[in-house]
Amino acid sequence: MYRQPSLFATDEVGVDAAFSSLDRRWLDADSYVDYCPTWLSGADGVFEQLLNGVTWLTRQVPMYDRIVDEPRLHSWWRASGATPEPLLVLAEARAVLSEHYGVAFDTIGLNYYRDQHDSVAWHRDRHQRSVRNPIVAIVSVGDRRPFRLRPHGGGASIVYQLGHGDLLVMGGACQHGWEHTIPKLTTGVGPRISITYRHGTVDDAVGEGAGVRPTMNCLRRTRCLALNDATRGASSPGGIGPLMLSHRPGIDVRVSA
Ligand SMILES: O=C(O)CCC(=O)C(=O)O
């Protein structure tokens, strides 16, 4: 599908360290969402560079009694590895977000939604037990997709249309009382990549309700398929490698290519 570039596309790449467009919305007494439209400038260029420069993988995940392909592609970067972030601006964003929110973001998960059929189901994110209230920051590039939040277990949802450099941050007790989704759509939409920053996650992220740490058994049980043979098992030029750790519900496993 043709991807509509942003009307306000700019070649200058950078983030708004002043968070000048920040709008904080309290979902309840303890949970908030920060929304900063076009926080990242030059988002269209960032989208293209990530699309073409990163090794995209399809995770296979347990779904009830079956193993299915996750309906989106994924890549993962972690601060404890040997390689720098795949793009300088991702490092800049990590530093600025860490400073602003007072936590050390240490992983970047990239999610590539190819079209309206790609999605992620309702879920909450959980990190290691020592991180009680994780802050999750998501920068979106490419076309806008609805990002929905609802109280855990169901209820009316709140929607943000995220793309073209928008930043959304979930904070406070959001990952306890609220769940989020990128739903499938019935009408066509161009591709979107979400750049997700998490802290306290290295080597210990677990899925919701998992209550277990990733094990070697998990490593063996779960396959992760490269997008094509050329990229299978290769480390990407930008340093995003094939080792990933899931944080989705029911996907309490570490996966590797
Ligand atoms: O793509 C997004 O904006 C949401 C990603 C997400 O919720 C996740 O990967 O856990």
How would you characterize this protein structure?
It is a single chain. This protein has helices spanning 43-53, 88-101, 174-177, 216-221; strands at residues 14-15, 23-26, 31-36, 40-41, 57-63, 66-69, 73-78, 105-113, 120-123, 136-142, 145-151, 158-162, 166-172, 178-182, 192-199, 224-226, 244-245, 254-255. The protein has 257 residues and is mostly beta strands. The protein has one domain (21-255): Jelly Rolls. The strands form five sheets. Strands 2-3-13-10-15-8-7 form a seven-stranded antiparallel sheet. Strands 9-14-11-12 form a four-stranded antiparallel sheet. The chain has a three-stranded antiparallel sheet with strand order 6-5-16, with no helix packed on it. A hairpin with a 4-residue loop joins strand 2 and strand 3 (31-36). The longest helix has 14 residues, at 88-101. The protein is globular. 2-oxoglutaric acid binds at residues 109, 111, 120, 125, 138, 147, 180, 182, 194, 196, 247.
The ligands bound in this entry are: 2-oxoglutaric acid
Radius of gyration using CA atoms only = 17 Å
Number of separate helices: 4
Which spans of ≥5 residues are poorly predicted at pLDDT below 50?
204-257
**CATH class group:** Mainly Beta
The secondary-structure element order is EEEEHEEEHEEEEEEHEEHEEE
The class by helix and strand makeup works out as mainly beta
For this structure, the CATH topology is Jelly Rolls
- The number of distinct structural domains comes to 1
Q: How much is the average pLDDT? A: 80
